[in-house]
Write a structure and sequence with these properties.
The complex is a heterotetramer of chains A (1019), B (417), C (102) and D (210). Chain A is of the alpha+beta class and 1019 residues long. Chain A starts with a helix and ends with a helix. In chain B, strand 13 and strand 14 form a beta hairpin. In chain B, strands 1, 2, 8, 9, 10, 11, 17 and 18 form an 8-stranded mixed beta sheet that branches. Chain C has 102 residues and is mostly beta strands. In chain C, 13% of the residues lie in helices and 32% in strands. Chain C has a 4-stranded antiparallel beta sheet with strand order 3-4-5-6, with no helix packed on it. Chain C has a two-stranded antiparallel ribbon with strand order 1-2. The longest helix of chain C has 13 residues. Chain D is built from 4 helices and 12 strands. In chain D, the strands form 2 sheets. In chain D, strands 1-12-2-8-11-10-9 form a 7-stranded mixed beta sheet. In chain D, strands 4-5-6-3-7 form a 5-stranded antiparallel beta sheet, covered by helices on one side. Chain D is globular, with a radius of gyration of 18 Å. Chain D starts with 18 loop residues before the first strand and ends with a strand. The chains are: A alpha+beta (1019), B alpha/beta (417), C mainly beta (102), D alpha+beta (210). Chains A and B meet through strand 6, helix 5, helix 13, helix 14 and strand 31 of A and helix 1, helix 3, helix 4, helix 6 and strand 12 of B. Strand 31 of chain A pairs antiparallel with strand 16 of chain B. The structure holds flavin-adenine dinucleotide (FAD), nicotinamide-adenine-dinucleotide, flavin mononucleotide (FMN) and zinc ion. Flavin-adenine dinucleotide binds next to helix 2 and strand 12 of chain B.
């Protein structure tokens, strides 16, 4: 339970430190709407915070929303489109309206729900999407244009003149759209990701979840219980009740104590499950340190959990739904269950005179809650007419004003609700003074998680709501999430589900007794909308009104998905948790289809929005990807080498010397040092594969286009591999170290893919062959030593017994040699540079020493370490192809290596390489290119066309693939892929490079610019 | 009814009661000259061009769900013509030109927004590859600029230039590229095609083909009955192999899932489209304010329209590497669509070996930008029985001939394209 | 997604790389004489390019490169992503294959 | 003639800074130890020679190689499963050449050997929070019921292959895990492990293989 316990304690200490007794006095003063007693807040720990710069106080245990309520704040936000004044509507993560900008500077965070943000001392929050101030928002003039700004209006206009879109219309729309501002500095906080494994994952710690976790835990299975809230208990924290004869709060406490005592159970609070993926992988976000000003030292802000669970029990509860009527968005109109949460859990009074509008029994709980808190119920409006049996007594006792009808308007402004206009069943309207309107349109089971594998929820008439349909494998839904709304049922079903899930995972223990509670009735007669004049909102955040829905219907956007996309219903940060069902119900009414026929839109992860930083975890900056270092890396670094990231490798690019003005000067020096003396380069990044077994030769014959079984022991050979589609895959030299042992090398870039390919050939294509493969890439530190003095240098390094003469060690020879000091090395006489050269490998531990010893042995000959740039220059001077030529579209013949293709055997790619278009005479093939004007700089990516031709698709004949400044030819040269190139040696062509505004002439030449006869490497 | 600020104002007076359906909801007729399978962008655009450009109006578009319910309704809306190989270059530029006049042609605001695309490069090799591509574009009369790090900084000051790993060296910029409001493209073509007589038939799934004794396709079986057709055009994207199988055809196509992501709406942050060359990440910002971003395919064959965590994490890691300021912005929604990945990453628009059956497929993750041109050239093929000159290379037999158009050089490995 | 490697047990799919349909078999042919180049090319074209691409259960190659380096043949439902079975390729490990190529 | 010294360098030469790092506290939550001077040999049975290979192993090392992902102790060596019909022999380095020759001879003709003495770097992770720490970068389930002492796994960390096995619990009663990582990745993976350990506080050391 690492993350959790850590952050918990940290949270408290942070809070405690801030509790200075002086403040405690002041504290309660500002909290005009705070109840004297009760609630799960710690009055001993007052917390200072500011909203829009105004200083206020709350208590430990508050959310930002409950603190605002306690401070009598009603207006907290402006809506997306019309900039209507908005307040707090819910008390959970489904909140559509009360979004604020949290924190400042690099930690600024837009669109945070005030209802889920825990209060901490020094918290700074600001309202968003308003100018200049929340009370006086200039953009609220949009309301005047409201008649035009209906759903989809922008598709019908802003078309003329076309040019105006990017310049005028769009910038206006973009500036108006969006809610908060994001930080524009790198996020300074850290994040990480972790894995967890369990038998049973329980999602949500209300009564159902707690009893499920208890049952599964007692039975002995490995359980993880995740709870989005800072505390376990769910609705029990708000609605109380009696369980096993104890008060609900006590029961929650004893339940969590029992869970804490079970070693096989892990409870993660502040942790929301946001995704359900394949194979039982669940994703959750733990808000480790969002309840403190900044994470402590070595602490992360948030952590993403991937929880691998065999079974899951989703007890995520239900979400109360609003009713659509004019003015239903005024600050002070609140869900009835939220009113109870603020009153009971936070001891904060949303209003002194509360009107209640409900179409179901559950809403009536609010009456008691308000009355017990000492507030008045202005009236209860219930379209069903009569008082539910359970509440008869209460109603009479407090001679409650009960009206059979519906709310048809709400009076008020930026300061919130002033009065509620009610139209009763016989059409008479009356106005009722109230400063808060509690609304309950019934409950929607929280089915989202059950639909993430594209299962569709099913309609249940009796509760007028969708319940989970076919859920992902291994997932059970119970409690309110499954439409079980009585406390007793939630406890029973939770227990049963927990026990069953545990049993399926093989847990043998006893799940213990079921906790008992009453089964209060839940009667509802659906009411979606009160039809009356005025804007009646369905989606509060996106300002989607009932008339937008019917307009969409008129225009043919009848599918719920069209409705969503045309009106943006349910596309806000709350994903329509409080609006989707209502919206589709109104669409159903408009089309005359039933609600189930109309159906729901697709539910997608995340369940609640997740910070991108959390999903990235620690993978940013230098930790973006892993890196690989060569054995001589630190040695090179000490000599001031400049490194370049090639794939994951960090390679020495060149070694600048004091006084050198640029890289070109350094690289040129390195090349000349090699060509005239001797130099060395760490080439350990090459992929190296030990190919062993009786059939190793046959195996290589089939993967390479040329033959290897005939290669003598102690010999090396250049090999080319094709993909099965006939295109070149990779190249490298492979040596035969023993009858049944080849040492194969690949390019740096392709080491991984080639290894996978070879294993595929071994295990899938030719399982009959006796071949074993193992990567030796990291075992060896490999250096290329090149230049006329190479042999002299090596002679000094190897044991005197070793003969390195042309006879004793001919070109393309390969064998083990003993070095002075006893180290055994592998020596290969191969040359990439075209010079007399060797490649030598020693065990990686000697890499640094080898570099040092090469310096010592080569001192008399001015030995020079060189980097990848010089390596590149020399390979281009020699016309050796590399990455830019092996670009995944070239054939062996394009590269001038067609003759290597054996006719005597089948090999990977042989057949497909013969297709007409791959053997056509007009293909682009590798040639050398040198500018006619020797002072000209040639650039890769420039195109080649006939001299004097006009640039166009027809004249485009190829391009320059690789270039370098050749110190030997003392001019820029390059390789290119040019149509019919080999037939055009000597031709002058046009080099066209419009991107860099260059246009000049060059000669097509033999790609081998330097020592074409190859005498030097044999030397 | 013509759309304009005036018609809007007028409608406002009557509380917008006056608006009529954007497209009709006709019952299928027994026979059409041309039946298009698939009510995505391509199918609807094809119908529009058949009616508008080639005078063939007795056309039906059959959509198994609601129009735009496939990838047209799921894509990250990038439009561009920055391709490097013959065949692609001209075709995508034709498309770009059609985008530039679409809204006026259709009398529908599809929010075509040419805010530019920048492909960042982080190594000399990448720069050279972009230089080659950019020059190809310029040679074909397409706008392209190669920017260095200093110039990029001017355009995008907020990127992570000091990255110790893959520092930004520059980028390839196409200013005319940008985004468009994907759903609106579907609705715009639907409305315009409908106005020209095309029947758009939703909730009508094609379940088989009707063939005559010579094997010629003469109609389709659907969930709403048999519908006769002079010619049948397939534009079913991720479902291509399934529909082709109904005609006994096997194609060089695999279906793969590509995920995309959108953040909560925030005030304008990102000017145009940015792609991160050293990671799998690209991003833009919708007019509504959401950051719209994505990355690689999940990598396995799929028809599930949803993906898994590894790619989600990979994409967000790329995002944080290149623009660490978005760390606190929240991902709001995540989804997947099914790509018809061809074996060389390039589309196929051609007659099939079966008489009367025509194919428009293989769009991979790049078909949204192609919508208008795809509609035009497919309509041309259906009307004239010969390929449009800008689509002459998108032939089905190119794999057999070895004439692949492989921009990425990955070969017959669809999940790598 | 989790894949049950027959050697390593159930692992995260990040450890595996995907190749695709395992049904096409690499054609064998006589180098000189025998079948006409055309026919051989047709056979290879089929093998390299054409796919059933089924919506449903598919046999496919996965490589446990981030684990035991075995090539695996899985049966997986491309609509639900559920794995039905995962077997080792005939040549994984040192076992002598029952019959070449299968 | 110049003389040459052949000092060896470990891939953690720079990354490993001995001592206490990260969160302060009485005891470090994690201890990271680079285990040096090893002999590592990858042994892959030839086609149809798995049984003979096992015999040869038994003869030379006194233990049958594990047929499933496990690590078994033999005479002065540990045999770690590293794939079907293959395993890695891990031993403290003595007379290296002799050790390697012995294996080459013992397995001649029945198995292919690949010298990995320098191809891998061994990082040992222990301490009360080792498991929580490893959970940040490894998807393995390390619960005792699933991963008891002696269990081995080839897995990947940060997209690179790692041979992982659980050694006998430490003196402090906490589990001990071994991670064999590729030499070229060692510097990078060490940073991953160290970063993951910061919140628990960790002790970094190195020791000769024993
Ligand atoms: C996440 C994601 C991001 C993307 N990003 C981009 C981007 O940025 N830029 C870009 O250019 N492209 C992008 N694409 C690709 C682009 O969306 C597609 O290539 C393009 O939409 C495909 O053409 P379409 O619109 O006709 O396909 P679809 O919209 O998929 O149309 C095919 C239609 O055929 C219907 N259909 C299928 N079978 C039947 C049947 N049997 N009977 C009747 N109807 C049937 C389907 O329901 C569907 O509506 C992206 C795709 C995805 C999934
Ligand atoms: N009588 C009625 O009409 C009615 C209707 C609804 C609920 N209720 C009452 O509400 C209670 C329902 O009990 P319950 O346990 O089913 O639900 P609950 O609402 O009590 O608990 C659900 C818990 O799940 C958490 N949660 C939701 N989504 C989550 C996610 N993605 N990740 C992590 N946590 C998540 C919530 O924070 C909450 O704590 C009962 O007491 C019932 O009587 C009554
Ligand atoms: C450019 C673009 C912008 C989007 N913006 C939002 C958004 O602001 N809010 C939202 O909920 N979804 C948004 N979506 C995602 C859609 O809701 C939906 O998930 C996507 O089109 C795929 O459809 P599906 O989820 O129904 O399969 C956006 C999608 C795209 C392509
Ligand atoms: Zn495995």
């Amino acid at each position: 339970m690492s993350g959790y316990s850590q952050s918990e304690s940290l949270g408290r200490t942070a809070a405690v430190e801030s509790a200075s007794s002086a403040r405690s006095q002041a504290a309660s003063a500002s909290q005009s709407h705070r109840l004297r007693s009760g609630g799960l807040i710690d009055r001993k720990v007052p917390l200072q915070f500011t909203f829009d710069g105004q200083a206020m106080t709350g208590f430990a245990g508050d959310t930002l929303a409950s603190a605002l309520v306690a401070n009598g704040v009603k207006l907290v936000a402006r809506s997306f489109k019309y900039h209507r004044p908005r307040g707090i509507i819910t008390a959970g993560s489904e909140e559509p309206s009360a979004l604020v900008e949290m924190r400042t500077g690099a930690r600024k965070e837009p669109n945070t729900r005030a209802t889920t943000q825990e209060l901490y001392d020094g918290l700074v929050a600001n309202s968003q999407n308003r100018w200049p101030s929340l009370r006086r928002d200039f953009m609220s003039i949009n309301q005047l244009a409201a008649p035009i700004f209906v759903a989809g209006f922008y598709y019908k206009t802003f078309m003329w003149p076309a040019k105006f879109w990017e310049k005028i219309y769009e910038p206006l729309i973009r500036r108006a759209a969006g809610l908060g501002k994001s930080a524009e500095l790198p996020d300074p906080d850290h994040y990480d990701k972790a894995w967890a494994h369990c038998d049973v994952l329980v999602v949500g710690a209300g009564p159902a979840g707690l009893s499920a976790a208890l049952a599964a835990g007692r039975a002995g299975s490995r359980v993880i219980l995740v709870e989005e809230d800072s505390h376990v208990g769910g609705r029990l924290l708000s609605d109380g009740g009696e369980i096993d004869g104890m008060h609900a709060e006590e029961w929650v406490r004893s339940a969590s104590e029992e869970l804490a005592g079970l070693p096989n159970v892990r409870v993660l609070t502040r942790t929301a499950l946001f995704g359900v993926y394949d194979g039982g992988v669940h994703a959750a976000l733990e808000r480790v340190n969002d309840h403190v000003p900044v994470p402590g030292p070595h602490q992360v802000r948030q952590r993403v959990w991937r929880i691998v669970a065999k079974r899951s029990v989703v007890t995520a509860g239900a979400i109360e739904r609003p009713i659509v009527f004019p003015g239903n968005d005024r600050p002070g109109v609140m869900m009835a269950s939220a009113v109870r949460t603020y009153v009971n859990r936070f001891a904060a009074m949303p209003g002194r005179k509360v009107a209640l509008f409900t179409n179901n029994d559950d809403g009536w709980r609010t009456v008691e809650a308000i009355q017990q808190a000492g507030g008045d119920i202005a009236a209860v409006i219930d379209p069903r007419g009569k008082v539910p049996a359970e509440y008869q007594a209460v109603a009479e006792l407090s001679d409650l004003r009960v009206i059979s009808g519906g709310v048809s308007d709400v009076k008020g402004g930026v300061d919130g609700v002033r009065a509620v206009v009610v139209t009763d069943s016989n059409g008479r309207t009356q106005q009722i003074d109230a400063d808060c309107l509690a609304v309950s349109g019934g409950w929607n089971p929280n089915v989202g998680l059950s639909c993430f594998h594209r299962g569709k929820p099913v309609w249940r008439e009796d509760i007028a709501a969708f319940v989970p349909g076919d859920a992902p494998r291994g997932m059970r839904l119970t409690g309110a999430a499954n439409g079980e709304f009585s406390l007793g049922a939630c406890l029973r079903d939770g227990h049963a589900a927990g026990a069953a899930a545990a049993a399926e995972c093989g847990a043998a223990g006893h799940p213990g007794e079921v906790s008992e509670a009453g089964d209060e009735a839940y009667a509802i007669s659906p009411l979606w909308q009160v039809r009356a004049k005025g804007k009646a909102f369905v989606d509060f955040q996106h300002d989607v009104t009932a008339s937008d829905v019917t307009l969409a219907q008129r225009e043919g956007f009848e599918s719920v998905e069209h409705l969503k996309r045309y009106t943006t219903l349910g596309m806000a940060t709350d994903q329509g948790k409080t609006s989707n069902i209502t919206g589709l119900a109104i669409m159903a009414a408009a089309t005359g289809r039933t609600i189930p026929e109309t159906g729901t839109t697709i539910y997608r992860p995340p369940y609640a929005p997740v910070a991108i930083g959390a999903l990235a975890g620690h993978h940013r900056d230098e930790n973006f990807h892993a890196w690989r270092l060569t054995p001589s890396h630190h040695w090179a670094a000490a000599r001031g080498a400049v490194f370049v990231d090639t794939g994951l490798w960090k390679r020495a690019q060149w070694y600048p010397q004091p006084g050198e003005k640029d890289w070109l000067e350094s690289v040129t020096r390195e090349v000349l040092a090699v060509r005239n003396g001797v130099g060395f380069c760490d080439v350990s990044t090459l992929g190296k594969v030990d190919v062993r077994g009786a059939d190793a030769g046959t195996f290589l014959d089939r993967v390479y286009i040329n033959a290897f079984s005939a290669l003598g022991v102690g010999k090396a050979r250049y090999g080319l591999m094709l993909r099965e589609d006939g295109i070149v895959m990779d190249d490298g030299t492979t040596s035969r170290l023993a009858e049944d042992h080849y040492f194969l090398t690949t390019t740096t870039a392709k080491a991984g893919p080639v290894m996978a390919h070879l294993e595929f050939c071994r295990q899938v294509l030719w399982p009959e062959l006796d071949v074993q493969l193992s990567s030796a890439s990291d075992q060896w530190a490999q250096f290329s030593i090149a230049g006329p003095n190479t042999r002299k240098l090596l002679q000094a390094l190897v044991d005197p017994s070793e003969d390195l003469s042309n006879e004793g060690f001919p070109f393309m020879g390969a064998r083990e040699v003993k070095l002075r000091g006893g180290v055994v090395a592998r020596l290969f006489r191969i040359s990439f540079s075209g010079e007399m050269a060797f490649e030598i490998s020693v065990p990686a531990r000697y890499g640094a020493a080898m570099a040092e010893n090469l310096m010592i042995a080569g001192k008399p000959y001015g030995v020079t370490p060189y980097g990848t740039e010089a390596l590149g220059v020399m390979r281009i001077e020699k016309g050796h192809v590399a990455g830019p030529e092996l670009n995944g579209t070239t054939t062996a013949d394009d590269l001038g290596l067609g003759k290597m293709m054996s006719k005597k055997k089948d090999f990977i790619g042989r057949v497909m390489a013969g297709r007409p278009a791959l053997t056509a005479p007009d293909r682009q093939v590798v040639v050398g290119i040198k500018p006619v004007d020797a002072k000209r700089r040639l650039r890769s990516g420039a195109h080649v066309m006939p001299k004097g031709s006009i640039a166009g698709p027809e004249t485009d004949q190829g391009y320059v693939t690789s270039v370098c400044y050749s110190p030997m030819l003392q001019q820029w040269i390059g390789l290119g892929l040019v149509e019919r190139g080999r037939e055009r040696i000597g031709e002058i062509v046009r080099i066209f490079d419009p991107l860099r505004s260059e246009d000049y002439e060059a000669e097509i030449c033999n790609p081998v610019f330097y020592d074409p006869e190859g005498v030097r490497q044999r030397g | 009814m013509k759309y304009s600020i005036f018609s809007l104002a007028k409608a406002a007076l009557s509380g917008h009661k006056g608006w009529t359906r954007a497209w009709r909801d006709p019952a299928p007729k027994s026979h059409y000259d041309v039946v298009i399978i698939g009510g995505g962008g391509h199918g609807l655009a094809t119908a529009y061009f058949l009616a508008h450009e080639y005078g063939i109006r007795n056309v039906a578009v059959l959509e198994k769900g609601w129009i735009g319910s496939g990838n047209a309704g799921r894509n990250t809306t990038i439009i561009r013509s920055n391709y490097g190989l013959p065949g692609n270059t001209g075709f995508y530029e034709l498309s770009m030109k059609l985008w530039e006049r679409m809204e006026q042609d259709l009398n529908y605001n599809a929010m075509v927004s040419q805010r530019g695309i920048i492909n960042l490069y982080h190594s000399d090799a990448q720069r050279d590859a972009f230089a080659r591509r950019g020059n190809t574009m310029r040679i074909n009369g397409i706008d392209a600029e190669l920017l260095d790090a200093v110039q990029i900084r001017k355009e995008l000051p907020f990127l992570n230039y000091d990255s110790p790993r893959f520092p930004i060296m520059g980028g390839l910029l196409q200013r005319r590229a940008g985004t468009a409001r994907h759903d609106a493209v579907v609705w715009g073509y639907a409305r315009a095609a409908d106005q020209r007589g095309v029947d758009i038939i939703q909730n009508c799934e094609v379940t088989g083909f009707v063939r005559d004794q010579n094997g010629k396709v003469t109609g389709v079986e659907t969930s709403r009955g048999r519908i006769g057709a002079g010619k049948v055009g397939m534009a079913v994207a991720g479902n291509t192999s399934r529909v082709a199988a109904m005609a006994g055809m096997k194609l060089p196509i695999e279906s793969h899932v590509l995920q995309a992501f959108v953040s909560e709406a925030i005030k304008p942050l990102i000017p145009g489209v940015i792609t991160f060359g050293a990671g799998h990440f690209y991003i833009s910002q919708s007019d509504k304010g959401g950051l719209v971003f994505g990355g690689d395919l999940d990598g396995y064959n799929s028809y599930a329209q949803r993906g898994n965590m590894p790619v989600i994490e990979d994409v967000c890691e790329g995002g944080m590497a290149v623009m660490p300021m978005i760390g606190r912005v929240r991902m709001l929604r995540q989804w997947g669509g099914i790509m018809d990945m061809s074996m060389d990453g390039t589309p196929i628009i051609d007659k099939t070996p079966i008489d009367g059956l025509y194919l428009n497929a293989g769009w991979c993750y790049g078909g949204f930008k192609a919508t208008p041109a795809s509609g035009l050239v497919f309509a041309h093929l259906l009307a004239r029985d010969e390929p449009h000159h800008e689509a002459a290379r998108f032939r089905l037999d190119r794999f057999r001939r070895g004439a692949m158009i492989d921009e990425k050089g990955q070969g017959a490995q669809p999940n790598l394209h | 997604m989790r894949i049950a490697c027959p050697f390593c047990g159930e692992r995260e799919n990040g450890e595996f790389t995907y190749l695709g349909d395992a049904s096409p078999k690499r054609p064998t042919f006589a180098i000189d004489g025998g079948d006409s180049p055309e026919l051989v090319e047709d056979a290879f074209y089929d093998y390299v390019y054409l796919r059933d691409n089924v919506a449903g259960v598919m046999r496919e190659y996965w490589y446990h490169g981030g684990g035991c380096r075995s090539w695996l043949i899985a049966e997986r439902n491309t609509v639900t992503h559920e794995f039905i079975s995962v077997k080792a390729a005939p040549g994984a490990g040192a076992a002598k294959p029952a019959q070449a190529g299968e | 003639m110049a003389d040459f010294s052949w000092n060896t360098q470990t891939p953690l030469a720079k990354a490993l800074v001995p001592g206490r790092h990260g969160a302060a506290g009485a005891t470090a939550g994690v201890t990271l130890t680079e285990v040096r001077d090893l002999v590592l040999m990858q042994v892959m049975a030839r086609r149809g020679k798995a049984a003979d290979t096992a015999k040869a192993a038994k003869k030379l090392l006194g233990a049958e190689p594990p047929a499933t992902p496990k690590a078994v102790a033999g005479k002065g060596a540990t045999l770690i499963w590293s794939g079907p019909d293959q395993f890695t022999v891990f031993a403290p380095r003595g007379d290296e050449a002799a050790q390697l020759d012995a294996m080459n001879n013992a397995f001649a003709g029945v198995a292919s050997l690949s010298d990995q003495c320098d191809g891998r770097c061994l990082i040992r992770v222990s301490g009360p929070r080792a498991r929580d720490m490893i959970a940040k970068f490894s998807s393995l389930d390390l619960d005792d019921s699933v991963f008891p002492v002696g269990t081995a796994a080839n897995t990947s960390v940060d997209h690179t292959a790692v041979n992982f096995w659980r050694a006998a619990d430490g003196a402090d009663g906490h589990p001990v895990y071994n991670m064999l990582v590729f030499t070229s990745f060692a510097d990078s993976l060490w940073h991953v492990i160290a970063d993951s350990s910061m919140e628990y506080g960790f002790e970094a050391t190195s020791a000769r293989a024993a």
